[in-house]
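Deliverable D5.2: sample structural annotation.
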Amino acid sequence: MRKIVSFMHISLDGFVGGPNGEMDWIKIAPEIFDYAADRTEAADLALYGRVTYEMMDAYWPTAADKPNASKHDIEHGTWYNQVHKLVISKSMEGQQKDNTTVVSDHVNQQVRDFKSKPGKDIIIFGSPGTQHTLMQDNLIDEFWLFVNPILLGTGIPLFKNIKDRVSLKLVDSKAFEHGIVCLHYEKQKA
């Protein structure tokens, strides 16, 4: 069965966005892109909430074509254009987009259906509301948490709507510049 792998920048106190979704506190280190590239290549389905999808779709389809495109822009832009996208959204219901499926109802069941199909892993970038929905039924198998050295005090929490205890195993940790630490956890089998 495919795994759902979550990639998320998070504050030290557990928030993924400020009170209004602000992400200006997130530090980016170029080496993070290289570190995450192998994981991205192991996925053939990208899962997004509407807001994150619109943000990604506004940039990545043409990122590799820009004259000043970075190595990451070229690699991730190429991957983004090839990978199938699954978007969780009520407001996009019925919209047709190339290489994209919009899910509006029975979200967790439809995600389970995608998870049971043959293929590579399913990767979810950002999309805290979608992750909250998936966490209700314990559908996320791995967390790659890029912990930024900041305390926000308030905002959008990553962990919400968890009904049952979930045991995680630390698989790897890696420090980056700006004091960012990636913690890679896998869900332990019950």
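Annotation notes: The domain at 4-187 is CATH 3.40.430.10 (Dihydrofolate Reductase, subunit A). Residues 7 and 125 are 5 Å apart (CA to CA).
The annotation will be released with the project's public dataset once the embargo ends.
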